[in-house]
Specification:
With 404 residues, this protein is of the alpha/beta class. The chain folds into two domains: 6-278, Aldolase class I (TIM Barrel), CATH 3.20.20.70; 297-403, no CATH class. It has 16 helices and 13 strands. The chain has helices at 68-77, 98-102, 104-115, 132-141, 155-161, 168-180, 200-212, 229-241, 246-252, 264-278, 289-292, 298-315, 321-343, 351-362, 364-369, 372-382; strands spanning 6-10, 17-18, 28-32, 35-36, 61-65, 84-87, 119-123, 144-149, 185-192, 217-222, 387-389, 394-397, 400-403. α1 (68-77) runs parallel beside α3 (104-115), α3 (104-115) runs parallel beside α4 and α12 runs antiparallel to α13. The structure holds iron/sulfur cluster. The site of iron/sulfur cluster has 11 residues, from loops.
Length: 404
């Protein structure tokens, strides 16, 4: 008999976790998670790893942050810097079963709607359809992007590895519904499991299904397996259901890296395989610029865009060392300006954007990023509001195409 789920109510001191820079992954500069641990209990979940300090049984001891809503309501009005709030994380699903009763995410959505704050949300659950009305309004007022996590197209595999998460078909239905309501949707196709769901056929089938429902982007990724609880749980199911793959999987993770990374030969092989599959579709592997432009301050937009460009060029085997240098220069400038801004409560809220535009107009940007070609490109983005196409790797203005 399996143990029952236990709910633990805990008070939080602060609701919003603030980061200095927007995340190129979730786009969030702010993060909020109503629960800790996750009843979905995916057998590969990184959230089980000791580094996250989740107490008890990861899929049975669920923490509800009970005073989160009043705290959030107060804190959001005090945020000086605009930016995306990302809901959920890779180690807890905001729409796990307890949300049916607690309705914390629904209440968060209402507050975001009232305060016109943009958001991104990551889930595997079709319970989000209950709140489609709210996310539609958040999207219209400020912007909303849904990240659905889906790595299998075969529901039999999903049942083994994601026993209490929604079926593949349910998640496809969520994508369809959000797209019908003009809300951007991307898929986190991760982790592809070695020997199980990482084959060329499996990846192609998944991409085909997602392409048919019109997802805006697919971010693929492999499995990280941290030594300890996460690795033990995963290998247990491999021994039971896929003993024929145990040797290969052990070889891929034999280094027992604390980061959980696989051996480099496998990373390269998987990345090549995914790129071959991607080339048959027109779906970018990062959130397209057209989706987030205008939803975050220009200085954050540039930071996210530069990081996405690095990912995209790396995938085409372009040397990104010059871009790395530009990103480092930009980050150092941004850090300085933000420190100045944060120390002075009386300067205008869009101070850093004004400074960035000033650098574009006075030739200062090329000194910051040490690259004249990139400077011209960024001026087109910042001042002329042109949009970078992640597939063509070009800027688009109306029908015209400008090479970066
Ligand atoms: S839904 Fe996400 S957070 Fe929850 S167990 Fe699965 S992978 Fe972990």
């Amino acid at each position: 008999m399996t143990a029952p789920v236990k709910i633990h109510y805990k008070e939080v001191k602060t609701a919003i976790k603030k980061e200095k820079f927007a995340s190129p992954f979730t786009l969030g500069k702010y993060a909020i998670a109503p629960y800790m641990a996750c009843e979905h209990g995916c057998l590969y979940c990184d959230g089980r790893a000791e580094k996250y300090y989740v107490q008890g049984d990861f899929s049975k001891d669920i923490v509800v942050r009970k005073n989160l809503i009043p705290r959030f309501e107060t804190e959001i009005t005090k945020l000086r810097e605009k930016g995306i709030i990302s809901i959920g994380s890779g180690i807890t699903d905001p729409y796990q079963p307890i949300e049916k009763k607690e309705r914390l995410v629904r209440k968060l959505g209402r507050i975001l709607e009232k305060n016109a704050f943009p958001a991104t949300l990551l889930t595997k659950s079709s319970l989000i359809l209950r709140d489609l009305d709210i996310w539609k309004k958040v999207n219209e007022n400020a912007g909303f992007i849904l990240f659905i996590s889906l790595t299998f197209s075969d529901d039999r595999l999903r049942q083994i590895f994601e026993p209490r998460a929604d079926s593949v078909e349910s998640r496809i239905r969520v994508i369809r519904k959000f797209k019908e309501n003009n809300i951007p949707v991307g898929v986190l196709a991760m982790p592809f499991l070695p020997c199980i769901s990482d084959t060329r056929d499996a990846v192609t089938t998944l991409y085909r299904r997602l392409s048919n429902v019109g997802v805006d982007f697919i971010v693929p990724g492999g499995l990280t397996l941290r030594p300890g609880r996460q690795k033990d749980t995963f290998l247990k199911i491999i021994r039971q259901k896929f003993p024929m793959h145990l040797g290969t999987i052990n070889r891929i993770y034999h280094e027992n890296r604390s980061s959980g990374s696989s051996a480099s030969f496998y990373q390269e092989e998987l990345s090549r395989r995914i790129r071959r599959v991607e080339s048959g579709f027109t779906i970018p592997p990062v959130v397209p610029h057209r989706i987030y432009q205008g939803k975050l301050p220009k200085y954050d937009e540039v930071f996210v865009l530069l990081n996405h460009m690095k990912t995209l060029y790396q995938r085409r085997d372009v040397n990104v060392a010059p871009l790395d240098k530009s990103i480092a220069g930009y980050l150092s400038w941004l850090n300085q300006e933000k420190t100045f801004y944060n120390r002075r409560r009386k300067i205008e809220d869009n101070y850093v954007d004004i400074k960035l535009e000033h650098q574009c107009r006075t030739g200062g940007l090329s000194k910051i990023i040490q690259n004249e070609k990139l400077e011209a490109f960024l001026i087109d983005v910042i001042l002329n509001r042109n949009v970078f196409d992640p597939l063509a790797l070009k800027l688009k203005k109306g029908d015209a195409v400008i090479t970066a």
